Amino acid sequence: MRLPARFLSAESRLMPDTRLVGPMPWVIAIMMFLMVLAAAGGLALTQAARSMGGNLADQATVQIVEANADKREAQAKSAIDVLSHHAAVSAVRRVPDAEMQKLLEPWLGDEIMGTDLPMPVLIDVTLRPGASVDALSQALRNAAPAARVDDHSRTLAPLTGLIAALRWLAAALVLLMAAATAAVVVLAARGALNTHRSTIDVMHLLGATDIQIARLFQRRIAIDALMGGLLGLAGAACVVVLIGMRMAALGSEWMGMVSLSVPAWISLALLPVAGMVLAMLSARWTVVAALRRIL
Amino acid sequence: MGGIVQFENVGLRYGTGAETLSDISFTLAAGAFHFLTGPSGAGKTSLLKLLYLAQRPSRGLIRLFGEDIVTMPRSRLPGFRRRIGVVFQDFRLVPYLSAYDNVALPLRLAGVSEKELDGPVREMLAWVGLGNRASARPATLSGGEQQRVAIARAVIGRPELLLADEPTGNVDPDMAGRLIHLFDALNKLGTTIVVATHDVHLIGRIGHAQMMRLDRGRLNDPTGMLRHPPARPA
User: Fold this and answer.
1) For residue range B68-113, what is the model confidence (pLDDT) as tens digits?
2) For chain B, which ranges sit under pLDDT 70?
3) Which candidate in A76, A223, B186, B217 could, as Cys together with B43 as Cys, close a disulfide (CB 3.0–4.6 Å)?
4) What is the gyration radius of the CA atoms in chain B, in angstroms?
5) What does the pLDDT average to over A288-295?
6) Percentage helix, strand, coil, to 5, in chain A?
7) Is B96's CB within 8 Å of A15's CB?
8) Of residues B203, B87, B105, the one with CA closest to residue A199
9) A16/B114 Cβ within 8 A
């Protein structure tokens, strides 16, 4: 007879090897599939919010809306001068005419710049972190009375609010899935306890501690949970990649922001491990709590 | 005199029924050998359950190895159980383990390494005549073979107290003789032994053994010898 090399392997044979035959691994696979999708959504939205914040939140646009071209040009120069020396501003750039034409082309056609139609002067302003746009309005009041300051962060506020809400929703879904997974493990552990009650009684009478008995269950349940989790992760990863390819095909700058970074992928890959740890802890808690009712 | 086991006015009741055991008082001196007898239903198995810590009494005091186990927190019980060897009437072998692993189980639970336990386990299996059945699972063993595995498991850890419930019920007279000889040898090494049995031939084989007779849940002790056993000669 070939003896087991370690105690743990012999201990594990106290119960029959029935991994992946019960419903628990499959239920955990489904839970993990949904959990990874929710987490991927949340992480992608986090990435989008970060990109949006980095690209637009510290930006403002100053428009000089003046029908008289000379006055408009004079106010534009004054405004650029004031903004260049303002403490809240880190960079100032007048939007060139060619860029303006490109911006307006979809609405007004390609020969707009040659007409008498008065066009506002646009000045892109990059604010220092934490700086207030209101200070710019105050500063420009005298130098460029026709100036209007557009705060991009205010414009984006509804969108960032929506993204924040969706991120919370994703986090809530992940937590709900984790709770459901824990509940499944608790039910499975209770079932296993009932099935193997006679073996547990014998072990107890031979001097096994609650932790030794719990270890039997938690190891088996951990392996089942890891296998189910990896299965769920594989399925969800395929879906995430497919959705990413579809979104990339749209060619939208906004959609391009919704992507997963390498750390985000690593976080998703760690979810089955987290699920396994959760399953182990749930099993241990359930078994120890049940054993406490036995002498 | 303080013994290895002390019962004082112990009563045991299952649920709300009548007492299965009433006013049980006795002392087992260290190294004593007792046969526990009585008709079926007298409470022998219940008394053994109290001794191997599967039950707490409904009333009374039980001291085991010098400590009150009635009020002892359950977290300390495994340590006490490891000092007790038990041969169950229904063997209670773990069905998924081989004979070898069943015998090795108490040592593994106590943290003995595989290297250290291999020799004693094989020796014990050979002693009970199952050296060539080490890898067999209980379902493939006869009743007598299962009983011998159960006995080997009970004594492998050299317990201070050995309890056996009808240990020779399923073995032939020759094997019964060998097993009782093993118990006697263990007893001579200092193990306190209580054997519950109906087998009068078995009782006659251990000359120095004392009798404990239960009748309808009460222990017959007209002379008070069980309650206050005489000191054993050194």
Assistant:
1) 999 999 889 999 999 999 998 888 999 989 999 999 999 998 888 8
2) 1-2, 222, 231-234
3) B217
4) 17
5) 85
6) 70, 10, 20
7) yes
8) B105
9) no
Where does A122-196 have alpha helices with state H?
Answer: 133-143, 152-195
- Whether the pLDDT of residue A239 is over 90: the answer is yes
3 state DSSP class of B197: coil
Restricting to A residues 162-221, those with a Cβ less than 8 Å away from any Cβ of B are 198-199, 201-210, 212
Task: Name the interface residues of B facing A (CB cutoff 8 Å).
Answer: 52-56, 74-75, 77-79, 81-82, 86, 92-98, 100-101, 104-106, 108-111, 113-114, 118, 134-135, 153
Q: State residue A86 phi and psi, 5-degree precision.
A: -80, 140
pTM for this predicted structure:
0.71
Q: For residue range A154-210, what is the model confidence (pLDDT) as tens digits? A: 777 788 888 889 999 999 999 999 999 999 888 888 888 888 888 888 998 999 999
Q: Which two tokens stand for residue A99?
A: 């860029």
Q: B94 with B106: CB under 8 angstroms?
A: no
ipTM confidence score? 0.85
Distance of alpha carbon B230 from alpha carbon B228, whole angstroms: 6
Average pLDDT of the residues in A263-286 = 92
* DSSP letters spanning A227-286: HHHHHHHHHHHHHHHHHHHHHHHHT-HHHHHS---HHHHHHHHHHHHHHHHHHHHHHHHH
List the one residue out of B69, B49, B68, B70 whose CA is nearest residue B59. Answer: B70
Helix residue ranges per DSSP H, B128-221? 143-155, 173-188, 200-205
Residue of A205, A212, A288 to mutate for B, most B C-beta atoms under 10 A: A205
Of residues A287, A271, A284, the one with CA closest to residue A28: A271
